[in-house]
Amino acid sequence: MKSIIKAGICTAVTAAVVVVMAGLVPVTALAVPISPEMGTKLAGKTVFLDPGHQGASHTESLAKQVSDGRGGTKDCQTTGMTTVNGVPEHTINWDVAQLVRASLESLGARVVLSRQDDTGWGGCIDDRANAANQSGAAVAVSIHADSAPAQFSGFHVIQPELPILDPAIDRIQSGAGRAAVTAMRDAYVQAGFKPATYAGVQEGVQTRKDVAGPALTAVPLAFVEMGNGGNADDAALLESKEGQLKHAIAITTGLVGFLLSSPTPAGAPALTGSAADRPAAAPAAPQIQAAPAAPQVQAAPQAQTAPQAQTAPTVPGAPQSPAAPQLKTAPGTQPAPTAPGTGATANLVGTILQLLMPLAGSLGLDSTVATSALLNLAYTLAGGLLSPAK
Ligand SMILES: [Zn+2]
Fold first, then answer.
1. Distance, CA 157 to ligand 1 centroid (Å)?
2. Residue 326 sits in which domain range?
């Protein structure tokens, strides 16, 4: 049984690796065994995703003045930054948002986006806040990346300076909004991202009054600056499929943590106490030090809810790409499939499994070992990520 489950993990995680390596190849009719339990974890919850900025094909005026939520006005939009390698922020934000959407939907959430594509206009900041307010969302996230001098790096989450003019928005952003910001910050730290140390960021959080979105949004909002596109290392993570998946899982983990209000998993690094108390560079979650490619596998008491270890997850019509054939192999019914034998792929497998650990904790699963429930989660997310774009 142990070896069957282990083989299943390899298959599930390899499926996610295929996403990373092939760049979200559309796979039709992928029949991964998504567990009903995992697929309803966020049932009844709506999440508003705002991938910052917009595509270049529009004729709108960015300088049009709109409410800043503080009694003044500001520009309707900005273009966003461009990384040191020339990749526009709006595309990075869009790509990460699509991964977050797929992950949330695979867990049963309803997702509403602020813009519908990455080519044209996506609305002024006040339009997007209104859309969030009317979406019925329990939480909203604005997804951005920063532009700062090259020596600065790291993520931060923006929260609005209080009080906010509108009493109802002030109540929401000072209460649940702060909790959403904290959950997002904690998820980023658990995922191994380093908090930024520039522009007044404290413990991964920056308090501002010049960002209008949070002051106009009556939904608890986390405004994420994933990294600094002006820094070579941050830019590489923002641009790569692997890095975008890492950001997306961190954002998903933060949202799930807020929505399900789970405590921080034991042993996870938490940003509490003074700056001197915490490591200067947030370490990867402790379990990353455990051999990632060979996770401990517990006996599976939940065997009946585990993805059918005896039943083949068939993939009708899967492309015959060299990286994909293991998707057609049923865990346990064939010789154990192994990840394509490169060290880089083995590292990716380990990385993705580790990335899922804090998310498993937020979902109330055992986040210290690769249980069948975690396997279920991996299948669920892989299924969502591999689904054809809607
Ligand atoms: Zn931005």
1. 12
2. 2-35+290-349+368-375
